[in-house]
Amino acid sequence: MSWSRLLTAIVGIILVLGLMIWLISSLSGLYSSVSVTSPLLGNVLLVLLLVLFVLLLAAAGYFYFLFRQPQRKHRPLPKAPVEKTEAARETLDAVRQQVAQIQDEVSRQALLERSHEIEQRFSHRALQVVVFGTGSAGKTSIVNAMMGRMIGEVGAPMGTTEISQTYSFRFKSVDREIQITDTPGILEAGIIGTERERLARQLATAADLLLFVLDNDLRKSEYEALRSLCEIGKRSILVLNKIDLYPTDDVEVILERLRERLQSVISPDDIVAIAANPQPIPLETGEIVQPDPDIIPLLRRMVAVLRSEGEDLIADNILLQSQRLGEEVRQLIDAERLRQAEKIVDRYQWIGAGVVSVTPLPVVDLLAAAAINAQMVVEIGRIYGCDINLERGKELAISLAKTLVSLGVVRGAMELFTIALQTNVGTFLIGRAIQGITAAYLTRIAGKSFIEYFRRNQDWGDGGMTEVVQAQFQLNQRDEFMRVFVQQAIDRVVQPLGERMKDEG
Ligand SMILES: Nc1nc2c(ncn2[C@@H]2O[C@H](COP(=O)(O)OP(=O)(O)OP(=O)(O)O)[C@@H](O)[C@H]2O)c(=O)[nH]1
Ligand SMILES: [Mg+2]
What we know:
- By secondary structure, the protein is of the alpha/beta class.
- The protein folds into 3 domains: 3-71; 83-328, P-loop containing nucleotide triphosphate hydrolases (Rossmann fold, 3-Layer(aba) Sandwich), CATH 3.40.50; 330-504, no CATH class.
- It has helices at residues 3-37, 39-68, 80-99, 105-123, 139-147, 190-206, 220-231, 248-261, 296-357, 366-383, 390-406, 409-422, 427-455, 464-475, 479-504, and strands spanning 127-133, 165-169, 178-182, 209-214, 236-240, 271-273, 281-282, 288-289.
C-alpha cells in the first residue's frame, strides 16, 4: 500500500471514530434528558436506537459480502460448447418449422431426416475424423497405420478406395471414441471419379476434424479444395505423406513452402510430415527391409487438437451442419416461392394484355394496367407471407407504373414491340397488338420487380425501386427471351384479337 493511501485510510478511520464518539455522546445525552422527564419515552428511544444499530450492522454485513463475491476464486466451466450446442438446437428447431413450409413431399422428408441425423449427434458424440485428399496420396495407408493393421485395400493406381469406410478407435488421453473415415480420392478423371469426389467432399464437410493428405507440393486444385473447406470453418490438419521418398532437407523445403503458402488458411503447427507406408529398402546384403510406418507427428498433433478442442469441434460442427441445413431449406423455400410467384406474373401479364388490347386507347393506359396489377401484387405478397390489402397493392402498382414511365421503359418497350410486330402482324391490327403486348411486358417487369421486393421482405434495397425495375428491364430484353415472348404474345393476344375483329367486322 502506498503512503498516500495509508495516510488517507488513517485520516478516514480517525474521522469515522470521531463521528461515532460524537454520535454516541449526543445520543446518550438525548437519552438521559428524555428519561429524566419520562422514563417510558426513554425506554422507547433506547429500543429504537438498538433496532437502528442492528439494521446498520446487517446492511454493513450485506454490502461487505456483496462486494467480496467477485473476488472469490471461482472458475466457471467453459461455456462455449454448451452455448454452441444450444444455438444448434435453436437453429434445428427453426429449420423444422421452415421445412413444414416446403410443398415438395420428397424434399421435405429428406430434409427432416437430415435434421434428425444432426440431432442424433447431440447424444452419439464420437469424434468424426475424415481422411481426405487426392487419389493415391496414401489416405488408406494412413488409416491402416493408425489402426495398426491392414484394413483397407492399398494400391498404386488411383481409385483404390471406391467407397468410404469408417473405423473406431480410442486415444488413451482423449475421452471420446474416435471414428475415422477413409474416403475415395478427389481429382480423379471420369464420371465415376466426379461422383466419388462429390461423396468425399460431403464427408469432409461433415467431419469434426479433417486430415487433408498430400504426397507432394500442393497443386492448385488441392489448394482450392483445402481453402474452401477451411473457409467454412472446417478444422484441418495438413498431412504431407511419403516423406521417405525425399532426402530430409527436401522435406524441410517442401514443408517450409507449404507453411508459407498456407499461412492464411492453416496454422504452421497443423502441417505435419509422415510416411504411412514407406517403401521397402534393399540392403547391400540383398535382403529387403520393410521400414515401420512413421506417423508419430500426425498422432501427436491429432491428440493435441482433439484433447484441447474436441468438445468445441463437435459443438462447432453440429452448429455448422445445422446452419448449412437451414441455408439449404431457405434456398429451397425461395425457389418454390419463386416458381409460384412467376406463375402468377405469367397469368397476369396475359390478362393485362387481353384487357388493354380490346380497349381502344391511343397509348397503354397505365392506370388501368395498375388496377389489374394491384391484385397481382397482393397475390405475390401472399406467396411471401406478406398480407397486404388491395388498397396498398394499388398504391404500389401505381408508384411502380410511374417509375416505368419516368425511366422510359414504357416508350422503350413500345418501340421494341413496334419493330418486332411489324413483320408478324397485319396493319389493321398493329396498333392494338402493340398496346396489348406492351401491357403484357410491363406487367411482367412490374411483377418481377415485386417478386424482388417481397423476397427482400418488403424492401427495395439501397438503390430503391428504380434500380430493381431497371435491372428487370435489362434482364427481360435478351434476344432469346424476346423471341419466345413475342411468339407467345402472338398466340395468346394477337390471334384472338384478329378473330374477334373479324367476327365484329
Ligand atoms: N513411399 C511411400 N509410399 C506410400 C506411402 N504411403 C502410401 N504409399 C503408397 O502410395 C500408394 C497409394 O496408397 P493408398 O493408401 O492406396 O492411397 P489412397 O490415397 O488411399 O488412394 P485412393 O484410395 O486410390 O485414393 C500405394 O502404393 C502405397 O504403398 C509412404 O509413406 N511412402
Ligand atoms: Mg484409399
